[in-house]
Amino acid sequence: MIVVRSRVHGATIRPAPTGDPLPMTRLPDFDDVRAAARRLAGHARRTPLLADTPLDGLTGGRILLKLETLQHTGSFKFRGAWNRLVQLNATERAAGVVAFSSGNHAQGVAEAARRLGIHATIVMPSDAPRIKLQNTRDMGAEIVEYDRRRESREQIAARLATERGATLVPSYDDPDIIAGQGTTGLEIVEQAAEHGLTLDDVVVCCSGGGLTAGIALAMAQLAPQAGVWTAEPAAYDDHRRSLAAGRRQRNEPDTPPSICDALLAPIPGELTFAINRPLLRGGLAVSDDEVRQAIVFAARTLKLIVEPGGAVALAAVLAGKLDVRGRTVAVTLSGGNIEDTLLAELLTTT
What we know:
Oligomer: single chain
Order of helices and strands: HEHEHHEHEHEHEHEHEHHEHHEH
Structural class: alpha/beta
Distance between the termini: 49 Å
Number of strands: 10
Strand order of the largest sheet: 1-2-10-7-8-9
Number of helices: 14
Radius of gyration: 19 Å
Largest sheet: 6 strands, mixed
Shape: globular
């Protein structure tokens, strides 16, 4: 087994055996997150950390909402995309980039590429929300659609990148992507301190694990007392099961789709799980109905628009999946790109 060494809270990361070959890729550390913050300064938004909401009375805790719904393109994904693309040299920029995504990474890469004058090709599932497809196209990206049930987006993207000599930009399993997402964690700690608060827990919406890994790196350095938890759809709780088992667990290929279209990764990333395994406290899972209720609560009570994948952490807290009584807990609202028709349906039926 290959061992990849990196400074993560002073430890050597040893990925759990999975049967898959692990590339010799350096894991990001806290210094990389700090460097990403410098690159993002003046380009990404320092999104609000919302305190003093009705959630405090409902849960008995002090709940802080990190509003990545207000980030460029409506999700945290712009952070990692900018950190990756801004480091490309002139030759690499001229050749373009290729990414694969169900929507939010697609938009983040498309917008970062537009600002940097880079041609972006995005491999997206044909059943992605129309708003995400249209937004990505409106940012100037070329879209290549595929059938997520029958085709491999990774294989399609790799072929396109090879044919075009373009740079492949993964959605989570990349050191620069992870470091960029980790700037969310830096802000959470800084903003909690501005409220005079010390964090006890952080609940993170999770798919491939890039946002979680980046936040975990920041917490391990700046708030080591805080437990970091993943939140996932119950049918796609591969991180929860992987953390419990100590090795990566794959979702069954015939698992019915969840309402959380942004959180359907089949297995935790190799790099992200190598970081998350020693640093996370555990995983939480919520039903699609609990996600629907969280979306409606956000809209009606908090006056916030959140997409299904961006609402799983809020759903976990609302549903009592984590005991937050007497604790200060940061919750990521990781995306706000919800279809108008879905939001209208939920508001009229839930």
